Amino acid sequence: MSLNKGVIPAERDDDLFIGWAKAPAIDRRFLFSAAPLLLGATTGLGWLVAKNLSDPGAGKWDTTATHVIEGALSAKPYPMIRVADPSAPFGMRTVLVVAQGKCTSGLDLAAKEGIPVKASGALIERNGRQMLEVPFSLDKWLEPVFIDMPGVVADPPEERLGRFALAGRIMDSKCFFGVMRPGRGKTHKACAALCIRGGVPPSFWARDGKGRESVLLMTDAAGGPLGEDILPLVADPVSADGEIVRVGDLLQFRADADAYRRV
Amino acid sequence: MSIETAEMIWMAVGGYLGLGALFAFYFVLRGVDGLDHAAKGAGAPFRLLLFPGAAALWPILLLRMLATPKGSAR
Amino acid sequence: MGVKYQGVQWNGNKVVYDLYMLVALALFMGVFMTIGMTVHPSGHQADAVVLLIRALGCAAFLMLTVVLTIGPLARMNPRFLPFLYNRRHLGVMTFLVAAAHFGLTVLWYHSSGPLNPFVSLLVSNPLYASVEGFPFEAFGLAAFAILFVMAATSHDFWLKTLSASVWKVLHMLVYVAYGLLVLHIAYGALMTEKSAVYVALVIAALAIVAGLHVVTGVREWSRDSGMKGLHAPDGWIDVCAPEDIPDKRAVTAPLPKGDRVAVFRDGAKIYAVENACRHQNGPLGEGCIKDGVITCPWHGWQYRPQDGVSPPPYEERIATHDVRLSSLGRVFVRVKKNPLGKEGAFIDVGGAAS
Ligand code: FES
Fold it and tell me: Fold for domain A158-262?
């Protein structure tokens, strides 16, 4: 019987790609046109994904220069230095102080409450809110100052502005102010919770219905630092009833952890 | 998940892989030659490539080695 | 294999393959970083480390998507076989990129805090009991563990040591890893970034992978069911007419117990062997006869058609099946395999059946 009926001739055995042999002409032609296509598609995908990333916001973290400030030190409820600034509203600018890394609670400042100091570190800044990042050992960044600092108020009076219901997100101030850009959202949630666990002050990033945003320093209802109960709520959309209190130029949002509701 | 649970999980993983790494040192240098004759005289790149897998799957390899009498490598 | 193991058995095709893979990866990362750093106005620049973490994560997902499309594409069209040939390197590279993503994440998001970074990875995002808040880190970690085991066992030594069936099951876990990665992205990036482009891209990737697998599955199933009812009661099946088999190629047929048989023609001779390659169960029937030996389409392992034994120095063996030419001129294959190494009865259409 004839076997050549309707059968492709024997050169066919050369047109199957076999890895260890030279690629057949038909495959080389195919790959030759496929390669630029694939490389182009890969490049295009990289472009498409990067192009649509959301704006990380206006945060800065300047590790190239040492920033020096002078003012009164306070550790209540979180480490901060109040700098006299006649041009600023309320005549002062409060600079929060955090340690390098995510363990600010290791800064032992209780004994220095209220004293005038000169401090140097890296400046973190977002929309006019400032923070100083300093090394752990106090003698590396903190010098007591013995002359008078005109205009510096160590312990400004509290002004109670009333109770409000706020909706927004709990942020760790350090990353949010500029250390990580973006330092928000679910992918940053764990990092934010870790920072807050380590003593970085939590901020409430509130937005009203008109899209206006404000950033408030979070404390418990009595004005003390918040504990670990707040951690599961970090970075997610939440709302809470609390009291807004102005201390110097800083707004505090005072509410216990159990006042927060997920929305 | 509590911190204690998480620590326990990592301790278990670390212990398993730590034992695995000890076993893997022996396995890639000696043991493999008794298990598979194609490994006899094989070079360093091959042995290096085997290491992570040996550290991860060491109980299986150990059983295989125990079940393979001396000199009967495939 | 009767030859010594090597780390990597390099050859020209693999080098070219790897070069293209690295160039593609470099292009993706380079474009991603450049655009990511410049897309927003100055003062709103993204953090390079966060961008790098994202670029690596995207690259790993893209690479795993490509890995999973190669198999079905190669079954549909032999032009894709070159992509399959060195898929192992693409898989290992996927693991390395995922490892960089993982390492950088632990370093940037979880270290230098009050907790051990690995402990933080499990506890800092704590809503395990929540459906919508579930920590995406856990999904990523599980997928990473699977990719690690797969990459670590990718050398042929493991295929032989673990046995082909165990190895196969282990490497089927790649589908679990892919599912976990989709969840990792859906619960992480897609809940963070607002652009609908990301949702569309993930859905497209999932649809392509699932679609290709469904199409090849259906094709196989309908081809098999077209061959049902060929069973002769005496333990032989009617496969085709001799001229249905292209020279140097095979026709495959399903056997009653679920295996398949590949019936090859080399000139005037017709042989039958089991269809599954000893290496990674590659479909031998989609391969060809090259220099007188059956050659697997996936990685080129070879078997003599007469007895199913690999030509020296190799020692792999597949089983042969007996074939005979029926009085009506049809090719019949005996359902029962011959013992390994035994020559099967073959047909010589130049003369009579042997
Ligand atoms: S499956 Fe790899 S050569 Fe056949």
Answer: OB fold (Dihydrolipoamide Acetyltransferase, E2P) (2.40.50)
Whether ligand 1 lies within 6 angstroms of the CB of C85 is answered as no
- C10 interfaces chain B, CB cutoff of 8 Å: no
Is the CB of C192 less than 8 angstroms away from the CB of A186? yes
Taking only the tens place, the pLDDT of each residue in A200-220 is: 999 999 987 787 889 999 999
C167 lines ligand 1 (CB under 6 A): no
The CA-atom distances, in angstroms, between C59 and each of A204, A207, C190 are 34, 35, 16
The 8-class DSSP code of residue A180 comes to S
For chain C (354 residues), the mean pLDDT of every run of 10, in chain order, is 75 90 97 95 89 97 97 90 91 98 96 94 92 93 97 91 86 96 96 94 97 93 70 79 88 84 91 90 90 90 91 87 88 88 83 46
Rounded Cα distance between C80 and C85, Å, is 9
Index of the ligand 1 atom closest to the CA of residue C299: 3
Looking at CATH, the fold of the domain delimited by A60-154 is given as: OB fold (Dihydrolipoamide Acetyltransferase, E2P) (2.40.50)
Which tokens sit at C76? 């549909």
- Give the DSSP letter string of C266-285: ETTEEEEEESB-TTT--BGG
How far does the centroid of ligand 1 lie from the alpha carbon of residue C321, in Å?
20
A114 close to A154: Cβ distance less than 8 angstroms: yes
CB contact under 8 A, C299 and A19: yes
* Burial label, A56 (beta-carbon count in 10 A; 0-12, 13-18, 19+): buried
- The segments of chain A whose pLDDT lies below 70 read 1-14
d(CA B33, CA B27): 8
CATH number of C236-348: 2.102.10.10
Question: What would the two tokens of residue C195 be?
Answer: 């652009």
**CA-to-CA distance for A112 and A95, rounded, in angstroms?**
16
Q: Does C127 touch chain B (CB under 8 A)?
A: no
Q: Where do the structural domains in chain C lie, given as residue ranges?
A: 12-222, 236-348
- Look at C115 and B3 and tell me if their CB atoms are within 8 Å: yes
C242: which DSSP letter? G
